[in-house]
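Protocol step 4 of 5: obtain the predicted structure for the target chain.
Materials: sequence only (see below). No template structures provided, no constraints applied. The aim of this step is simply to have a reference model before the mutagenesis design in step 5. Sequence pasted as it appears in the construct record:
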Amino acid sequence: MANNKYSDNFDFDNLFVLDLANNHQGSIDHGLRVIEEHAQVCNDANVKAAIKFQFRDIPDFVHPDDQIKSENKHAPRFISTKIEWTDYKKMASKIKEMGLLTMCTPFDEASVDKITELGFDILKIASCSASDWPLLKKAADSGLPMVVSTGGLSQAGVDALVSFLTHKACDFSIMHCVSVYPTPDEQCNLNNIAEFKSRYPGITIGWSTHEPPFEQVHVGLAYALGARMFERHVGVPTEDITLNLYSSNPSETKAWINAKLKAETLLGCHERQIYSEEQDAIAGLKRGVFVKSSIKKGNKIANDDIFFAFPYREGQISSGEFKHGFIASENISKNGAVTPDNYKIEVSDDDICETILKTAIHEVKAMIAKAKIHLHHEFTTEYSHHYGIKNFRETGAVLIDVVNKEYCKKILVQLPGQQHPLHMHKLKTETFIVVSGELISELDGKEFIIKEGEQLTVPAGTWHRFKTDTGVIFEEISTTAYKDDSYYKDAFIRDLTSSQRKTVVDHWGRFQISEQLRSK
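Step 4 output (structure tokens):
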């Protein structure tokens, strides 16, 4: 699926949500103190944060009988901590004054209207309301960006929730949440975050935490698994106020935020990094190539002529770089190091071409694995190289034939920067469906950019070509593919035989590639 986030959507990534809940204790002054102290923590850490209220339209929210006496433990607390709407407005103004976002959870439809009226930035749906469809419909119609917690929902329930919010065109994110207060380790199930991340691509996934506030390992693990939004309850203890077992005081909130930032630093980036200090350390532990006996200039250096030994001398050939067939370009004394200055290597064009294709295979296999494409063991692979294998990285593609009957399916892979030249098919109509990356295709002179999940149909007789900047995997679904049905604009390509512009092998061609190159 494509990530369909637009510039006017709310950016949920790396948002910290601090839930004030009823920890204002029904006091506007204490509520302002909680806001000020926790906002300062967030500002000191330079993080994006929202402070969240909870709205209930009391007394209408609580049943008349339960307003007098209730066996539900929450009802007395909701009533006793009730404050006026004007007080909420004052606290919301303080949040904005401190540079934070305002957020609020409605528990009834009237509260959604109040959230809109008071100008809140974000609306939050609590776990207990995640299947309350009348309230969800009202919230969806507010037009506000929404964060939805999923505590207590089955997987089917979360699927239904995501589907509903998507159909309503809501700008939303979802929180993995366990509604146990506090949450014991064995019930955290943080792997749900990774499952959500995979199951709902393009949607920000968060972790709404109820573990004891002195615990800091959870937030780092959640970030590592893909969570990009983090929520916890906050408060300020006093001589008269004791926080519950899942609410953080300012110092605990600071430690929690720092734990996430530390995890972010430790995880770094997905792309492989090579550091000079690392290279120096490795070089100090490598083995070098040395000759057993004196070698005269012009003689070949065979496997039997060398040995590998530690330590590696700076600038010499390492054990991993040695190839059979090196030729001494000067005399090398016994036990002497083989260096770029005292050897040369004769490499045939076939060897160069084989290395180019086999290096590409490693990358193609990795791309297919990353895209979670599973291939049957019986398939044919075509390495297209219209301007020669030496130019494969510029002009080329890998085509995997999956089935070719009355219908045809191929999987095409292009490495970053590759292009496929202008051509047409007289018999075949084909549809490209991008699985991973981005494809740029030209049809009769018009350019199309095709992203993940998108498709483009190429009718028979249509001149077309394609390329990629990012690297791409796309399916080609077509009518029957015929061997001689590709007609190229470039006369140079038209004059080539099929074997000159492509190398076709069974499976990946582990052994066939060498044989074919040497038979051409």
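Step 4 remarks: The mean pLDDT is 92. The first strand starts at residue 15 and ends at 19.
Proceed to step 5.
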